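tl;dr need the bound structure. longer version: we got a ligand (alpha-L-arabinofuranose) that a collaborator sent over and nobodys looked at where it sits. i said id run it. heres the input, straight from their email, havent touched it
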Amino acid sequence: MNIKATLFASAITLMPIAVVASDLTIGFSQIGSESGWRAAETTVTKQEAEARGITLKFADAQQKQENQISALRSFIAQGVDAILIAPVVATGWDEVLEEAQDSDIPVVLLDRTVDAPEELYLTAVTSDLVHEGSVAGQWLVDEMAGADCRIVELQGTTGSSPAIDRKTGFENAISDHSNLEIVRSQTGDFTRSQGKVVMESFLKAEGGENICALYAHNDDMAVGAIQAIKEAGLNPGKDIKIVAIDAVPDAHLAIANGEMNATIELTPNMAGPALDALDAYINSGTMPPKWIQTESKLFTAADDNQAIYEMKKGLGY
Ligand code: AHR
């Protein structure tokens, strides 16, 4: 893709859309602020609500499912028109979703899926999380071109749908390639600090020269790991190839600097499609599809990552 097309494609995922005003009140249960991507999603959700004249009641769960369940119960008690939730883990939601349904409050899932009956929520706005892992795995298959490679994996939050699905997708993609082997895999909880700590332990246990590639379930963990790799006297992106997911500005900068190799974009604008679906459902009874899928685009050193970094930073990402 040429640079203009690349910038346009990225900009479109970040800019609030002008839409008709509404007098809806919507509760948003956010996971927390574990990553740059998460912070961007919070910002964009507030912008998208404001652009529609929606009153957004925001609750930060600080990574705890029990806080999310309490927030949902509080939204239900307040009689909100709808609820947005980014569920921290996949299981344990049936009861509170039933309570929302009993109160006729539609619930929309943002960016993560749940293991609950589909009829308990209106729709889910997410990427194809398994596909993201497959794209990362396929990138490494192509990059290694048959050469042996010992891989370390930084998983996302244990029990979260992106950690489960991104692992599955990556493993599927490399399964027919005996030259590629995952030798260590551990959670870094989607944070920069844990990404660094766990990468340090991988380097110590394996020896840096015996690790050929890092697959991180998000960019923040990859950025933390880059620091650990540098402190171990190795060159990230060269001695150890790095592929991750999100395409946050710092990942584009790391690719521009040759310290990271690839990232798969996850738009932080899940709220735009979610609020459109809710508006159509509440105001005209239009039933949305059960899954509103967002795009997953691969960025590599072939893209103008310096320009994309500057453009995303300019948008307040
Ligand atoms: O659910 C999406 C994931 O959650 C993002 O990839 C990650 O950065 C975030 O914490």
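gonna send this back to them w/ a short note. Residues 202 and 285 are 52 Å apart (CA to CA).
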